C-alpha cells in the first residue's frame, strides 16, 4: 500500500494543472512527428524499391558479377584449346645454337577438350546462379527488415489514433475534475493510460526507426519514393500453394545451383573417362641452326600418340571419387527440396490463416469502435463508469492493433511466398 500511495503522489505532482498542459503539448508534438520525411506527391518506397536499391549497390552483388565475367573469360580460354599450339625452343651448346619453331594440333583426344569446354560452360552458369542466389539472399534480408518496418508503421498509426482519443478523454476528465464532477482518481487513471500508450508508441517508433536504419545500411542509400498515383508492385500468390511449389522447384536459385553442380560433376566424370584414352596429334617443326651431334637444320612433320593414366594410374580413384560426389549431390538436392517445401508450406499456412482471420478481425474492430462510441454517450449520461469507458477505448486499441498487424503481416507473407517461388 505504501508503494501504491507513493506512485499516486508522483502522478499527482507530474499531472498537476501547472504541468499538464506542457506535458500533453509535448506528447502531442511527439506523436505527430513523422518518422521519415517524404517529398510532396511521393509515397514512401516499397519493398520492391528497397530490393532494387540493395541489388544495385551491395558489394556482394558486384563481386558475383565480377566472378561471372571471369567465368566468361575461362570459357573463351577453354575454346582456344581446339586451336593449334605454337611454341619456340632455343638450345645453345659450346657456342652453337638451334632454334625450333613448332605448331602442334590435336586431332583426336577422346573428348578431353570438349569435356574441358563443357566444364567451363557449366562454371559460367554456376557463376550466374551464384549471383542470383546472392540476390535472393539479400532480397530475403531486405524483406525481413521491411516486414518489421511495415508492421511497426501500422502499429504506430494505431497508437497515434489511440493516443489522440486518450488525449480527448483527458481533456474531458480535466474539465470534470476542475468542476468537481469527477474524482481526481479518474484523472489519474486517464493519465496512466496515456503513459502506457505513449510507452507503446515510443517502442513502436524505435523499432520502426531501427528497421529503417538497417534497410538504409544494407542499401547504402534510400530509394526515391513513388508517385502517389503509381501502382505498387504486389506479389501474386493466388495461383495456390501447389503452383508456388512447382515454381520453387523449377526456378529457385538454390535448386538450380545444385542441379548444375550435378552437371559439373558429370562433366568432370566425362573428363576423367576421357583421360583413359590416348591423344593423337600432328606437329610441324622448322629448325634454324644446328648443334653438332643433334638433328640437322630443316623442316619436319610428326604424328604423335600420347597415352598416360597419371602417377600410379591415379585417374582410376579420381573416377571413383567423382561418382561418390555425384551421389552425394543427388541426396543434397533432395534434402534442399524438402527444406524449401517446408518453408513454403509454413508461410502458406500462415498466409491462409491470416486471410481467413481478416474478416473477423475487421468485424471485431468495428464492434469495438461502436462500443467505445456508445460508452462515451453512456458515460456522459451517467450510465457508464469512467473505468468502463477507459476499458472500451483500450479494447478498441487492441482490436485495431490486431487488424493492422494482420494486414501488414499478410502483405509481407505475400512477398515471402513469391520469393520462395524464385
Describe the structure.
With 422 residues, the protein is of the alpha+beta class. The longest helix has 67 residues, at 112-178. Mean pLDDT is 83; it is low at 1-37 and 227-233. The strands form two sheets. Strands 2-3-5-6 form a four-stranded antiparallel beta sheet, with no helix packed on it. Strands 1-4 form a two-stranded antiparallel sheet. It has one domain (51-224, 234-420): Outer membrane efflux proteins (OEP) (Up-down Bundle), CATH 1.20.1600. Helix 2 packs antiparallel against helix 5, helix 5 (112-178) runs antiparallel to helix 6 and helix 8 (253-274) runs antiparallel to helix 9 (315-380). The protein is built from ten helices and six strands, in the order ααβααββααβααββαα. The chain has helices spanning 2-14, 17-32, 47-57, 59-79, 112-178, 184-219, 241-251, 253-274, 315-380, 386-420, and strands at 42-43, 85-93, 96-108, 226-227, 279-288, 298-306. The two termini are 61 Å apart. It is elongated and about 130 Å long.
Please tag this protein with its features.
6 strands; elongated; Outer membrane efflux proteins (OEP); alpha+beta
**SSE topology string:** HHEHHEEHHEHHEEHH
Give the overall form. elongated
The main sheet comes to:
4 strands, antiparallel
The amount of helix comes to: over 70%
- Ends distance: 61 Å
| CA radius of gyration | 37 Å
Contiguous uncertain segments of 5+ residues: 1-37, 227-233
Counting DSSP H or I runs of 4 or more residues, the number of helices is: 10
The CATH class designation is Mainly Alpha
Going by CATH, what is the homologous superfamily?
Outer membrane efflux proteins (OEP)
Q: What's the CATH topology name?
A: Outer membrane efflux proteins (OEP)
**CATH architect. name:** Up-down Bundle
By helix and strand content, what is the structural category? alpha+beta
